[in-house]
Amino acid sequence: MRQGAVGAVRRVEAEGRRLVEKRMTDPARHDNEVRALQALAHVDLPTPELVDETPGVIVMTEMPGVRLDDVDRQTRLAGLRASAPLLRRLHESELPDGLLPAPDDAAIVERYHAAGGPALRLTVPPASGLAFCHGDWTDGNLLSVEGRITAVVDWEAAHIGDPIRELSRAAWGAGRKDPRSSDALIAAYGADPAVVHAWDAIHAAELWLWFAEAGPPEYLAELTRELRDGLHG
After folding, report:
1. Around Cβ 208, how many Cβ atoms within 10 Å?
2. How far apart are alpha carbons 79 and 188 in whole angstroms?
3. How far apart are the first and last CA of the chain?
4. Cβ contact 29:152 at 8 Å
5. Quick one: CA dihedral 219, 221, 227, 229, positive or negative?
6. pTM of whole model > 0.85?
């Protein structure tokens, strides 16, 4: 079973309960997910319940549904649209303490220029505020049943950050698979598309750096071609 895309994840049973065990080697990200799950216990979102944690191991309730990246295009589109109000609800919730820092966009711009990525107009947009952010709101971290979101998983990158930046990252990434997804997310969230798309180049640079540093090389080559052709930038 896959529930979340990062770390070693497996289904377990204890005292008749169906649970998920997630193992991570990075103590900071482990602790961050634990803090996020603790905070989410007080937020009206479909998220796993933290059952137990020991160094490197998090045990949480198993959530129903399949990942949106495992469904057909129309169901994925419906699921992404349905996820936007949940993202807004997260952003309007109380700010928890102790989460990892938000992405450093000035550092991303500097690193991208130093790495010699394809030409992008990189300007960090004005901040829109601070909110409780998931950190990786993608179709791989959203579970659904027939387009209805049943869980938001993988909270290890949670942070206090700019809510429009997070929405924009979700929309930009979703739009690379299906351009309709970007408009659907932005409209369902209720944001100004121009303000959201002002972040697009930052996300392109961030993803390019990720592929450049962690691979796989074919993904880097594909994104490089897209950016040189003037797409998504």
Report:
1. 23
2. 11
3. 35
4. no
5. negative
6. yes
CATH class of 8-61: alpha beta
Domain residue ranges in the chain? 8-61, 66-228
* DSSP bridge pairs for 4: none
- Per-position pLDDT tens, the chain of length 233: 444 445 688 888 877 789 999 999 999 999 999 999 999 999 999 999 999 999 999 999 999 999 999 999 999 999 999 999 999 999 999 999 999 999 999 999 999 999 999 999 999 999 999 999 999 999 999 999 987 999 999 999 999 999 999 999 999 999 999 999 999 999 999 999 999 999 999 999 999 999 999 999 999 999 999 999 875 44
What distance in Å separates the CA atoms of residue 82 and residue 85, rounded to the nearest whole number?
Answer: 7
- The CATH topology of domain 66-228 is Aminoglycoside 3'-phosphotransferase; Chain: A, domain 2 (3.90.1200)
At 183, the amino acid letter reads D
